[in-house]
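REQUEST ID: PR-0412
SUBMITTED BY: lab tech R.K.
PRIORITY: routine
TASK: structure prediction, single protein chain
INPUT:
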Amino acid sequence: MSAYEKAADEWAADERAAHERAADEQATDGPTGGGPAADPAGPTRVPLGRTTAWTTRLAFGAAGIGNLYSAVTDEDANRTLATAWDRGIRSFDTAPHYGLGLSERRLGAFLRDRPRDTYTVSTKVGRLLVPDPGATGDDLANGFAVPSAYRRVWDFGADGIRRGLEASLERLGLDRVDTVYLHDPDDHADQALREAYPALERLRAEGVVRAIGVGMNQTAIPTRFVTETDVDVVLLAGRYTLLDRSGLADLLPAAQRRGVSIVAGGVFNSGLLADPRPGATYDYAAAPPETLARALRLREICERHGVPLRAAAARFPLGHPAVAGVLLGLRSAAEATDAADMLARAIPEALWEELRREHRTPGSVPTPDRG
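STATUS: complete
OUTPUT:
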């Protein structure tokens, strides 16, 4: 039996187990029955598109445990994942790009012994990792503090998609993943639409994966996927935040019309909305003075209502009906605890109203407590 056939069989078994578990939980008013969980970060399952794949409202972004920017020990990575699990996070996103496979290996090691129907995993395709035995030094030029033992090769061909997924499954040590995203096909859009997407569509039809989509930090190409294909979900990084609502111009309305889910990543715009200060980063570069000033003003408004800016930033995307969940990159147990606390924090309607009056959040923009 091939890896793909085994994955399809395992999905069928998992679906039966999930339905049985859901019935048990509904009888006891558990997390997947009897209404939503009290904690927005908790294990309520939000469907992705029209599929049986799902996300928790707060999902774990695993780039950090792939040694993004600086090293994280195996012990600290495991502690971060365990803390997130204890706080009800059950959806985890990774990619081969993150630490040249380190993120996938660490995530898989943590999840391997947990019941497979109790969590969801997404990974990405489009970059193959090719051994580079003659390489020396580290991978910090690409943002990761790991040895440069592999080189990344872009491949959005059909064969590359299947080989990439098989390699990810091997690194994860899992039989299957729930969702697969095409990763950053900015310079490969035509090939991704012509070759990679049909390959993903076949994998979904075969039952190898449950949901397919695209993950990018722009809106134009994802909007093409939403309108021209049958994707289930878009992982949108940094384009629907308190500072950048460009996703409202095209992608989010299209997704809502087509029944496609959005998972909002990059909600802090790479750091500025978590801690606005001189030298803070905005979209991976030093924040321009005018953008920093906007962020500081947002913090001032939030503090007047007793709400940390990062809480408002994390909750804001969830107001849009197309947004299924928020993906936060976590690299420490403290960050995992804070993320769950921020998402669960009560935010008064008066805060959203003041943001509207300040023209920071126009009246047409839905918020978690209105619209």
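NOTES: The chain is about 40% helix and 20% strand.
REVIEWED BY: pending
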